[in-house]
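Sequence in, structure out. First:
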Amino acid sequence: MKYRILLTYTLSLIISQKIFAQDSLTIEQVVQQTLRNHPAIVQAEHRTEATEARALESETAKLPTASVQASYTRLEPASGIAFPGLGDFNLYPLNNYDVHIGGEYTIYDFGKADATISASRSNVQTAQDAVELTKTDLAYNAIHTFYTILFLQQSIQVANDQIDALNQHLTITNEKVTTGTATNFDVLTTQVRVGAAQDRKVELESALHQQQTLLHQLLGVPDGKDIPLRGDFAMTSVALNVDSLTEQAFLHRTELKAAKDAEQSAELQYKMSSFGNSPSLKVDALYGFKNGFFPDIDVLRGNLVASLSLQVPVFDGGRTSHQEEETHADMLAEQAHIKNIERQIRADVERSADDIKTALDKYQIANVQVQQATDAVTIARKLFETGSVTNIDLLDAETAEAEAKLARLRVLFTYVMGQYELKQSIGSAWF
C-alpha cells in the first residue's frame, strides 16, 4: 500500500510538470491534478493503510503463537542425601539448564475472535469511505476556485471596459470645458466615477489574488507561479426531476455510504461487546531439554509439558454490561445519523435544483437588461454630444451598463456552480 502511494505521488509530480508546461489548464486538468497529490488524500490513504494493518493484526487471534525460551540457573548450596553403602546423591544440580519451545492455541472462544475481525474489517471500509469523502470535497473546492477565478477575471475585464469608457468620456468632457459647453463640475463628476470604478477593480484584483493563492495550494505549486486557466460559463441543460435525483443521491452519495458503513461497524462492536464474558478453551504445549531428572541430574533430557485449560469469567464488575450499553447507544446514534443525512441529501438536491431554475430565469432577464443598457448608452452618448442630456445622465447610463454585465456574469457563475453543486448533491462522478 505504501509503495503504491509513493509511486502515485512520484508519477503525479512528473505529470504535473507536463501539465503546467501547457498553455492553460481546463477544469478537468485542475481537478485531476488536485486529486493526484494533495496531502489530505495522502493522509487519508495512510490512515486506511493503518486500518488495514490493524485488521490483519486482529486476524492473528485465530492463529497459534510459539516462542523459544532458554534459561540458566545456579543453585547453591548444594543439597543431597547420603545412603549407607550407596554414597551421596544430590537433590538437584548446581547448574540448571532449560531450553524449550512452547506454543499456545485458542481452540474455541465462542465467536469472540470472529466478531473482533469483522469489526476491524468494517473499520477498513470506513477508512476507505473517508478517502472518497476527502476526494469529493477537494474536487468541489477545486471546481469552485476554478470558476471563481474565471468570474473575477471577467469581472475585472468589465471593470476595465468601464474605466476605458469613463476615461474617453473624461477626455470629451475636458474638450467641452475648453469650448465652454461643459463645466469643471462635469469633469469632477466624471473623475469621481473613474475613481470609484478603479476602486472596485482593486477589490476584484485582491479577491482574484486570494483565489489564485488557494488554487496554488490545491495544485501543490509554488505561490507566484502563473497558472493560466481555460474555460467558460456554458449554459447546458440539466434534468431537474427532484424525486429521481434524490433516489440517485441515496445510491451514490459517499456520505450516506460512510454512514451506513459506520452503522455496520457499530453493530459489530455491539456484537463484539456481548462476548466479554464468553469462555475460552486453550491448549498449551512445551517441549525442550533440561537437566535435573533422576537418576543423572546433570544430563540434559528431552521433556514435554502439555495442558488444556478452560477459562470461564464469573464476575467482571459489570464491565461487559456497560460496554454493551455503550455500543448499543453508539449503534442507535449511527442509525439516527443515517436518517439525518438522508434528510440533508434531499434538502441539498432540492436547493441545487432551485438554484439552477432561478439562475436560468435570471439569465434570460439579465440578457435583456444588458441589451437595454447597451442601447441606452449608445443613445445617451449621441444625445450628450448634441447637448440634449447632461453629463450625469451619460455617466448613469454607462454605470448601469457595467452593472448589468456584472449581474449577468454573476448569474452565469451561479448557474454553472449550481450544476456542480447538483452533481455533488447526487454523488455523481465529476468527470
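Second:
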Amino acid sequence: MRPLLVTFGISIIIQNVLLEVFSADLRSLNAGVLGTGGFEFTRELAIGWLPLFTFAVGVGVLAALALFLARTRLGRAFRATSDSLDTAELMGIDHRQVYSLAMGAALAIVAVGGIFMGLRTNFGPALGPMYLLFAFEAVVIGGLGSVWGTLAGGVTLGIAQTIGAELSPGLAVLAGHLVFLVILSFRPQGLFPKTVEG
C-alpha cells in the first residue's frame, strides 16, 4: 500500500510540475510521412503506416520481454522475486537490485510507448490518469502476469473503443469500460491468465 500511495503522490507532483513548465496546452510529435501514408486494400479499407508500425513494435517489445523473462537468468530472478520474495532471498537474489532493474526496464518500455502515443495523438500533463486506467484495464482483461494476455487485452479494449466511437463519438471510452466490466464479471482471472509453468 505504501509504494502505491507514494507513486500516486509523485505522479501528482510530476503532473503539476509539467503544468507549470509546459502549460496545459496539448502537444504532439510530428510523424512526418509515416503519419500520413498507408496501405490501401480497397476503397473502404486502408491501414496507415504508423498504426501498423506501432503494432509491430509493440509485438516486438512484448516478444523480447517474454523471451527475457523466460530464457535469461535475470528474467528468472525477476519472476522469482515477484512470486516469493523470501524464497528469492534464500536463493541469494538481491531483491533491491532486481527491483531497480525491473523499474529501469519498465521505464524503457513506457518510453517507447510514450513516443508512439505522442506520434499518434495529442498529449498533455493531465492525460496520464486516463491512459493509466486504459493500461490497467488491458492488463486485467488479458490476465495478470500474462505478457501475451496484455496484448490481447489491449487489442480487445481498442476494438471496443473503436466500435463505440463508430456508434457515437461519446461512446468510445464508455464502450471500453463496459467490455472491461463484462469480462471481469464472467472471467475475473482474465482471458489468458498466467499459468504455473509460465
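Remark: Residues 46-123 form one domain.
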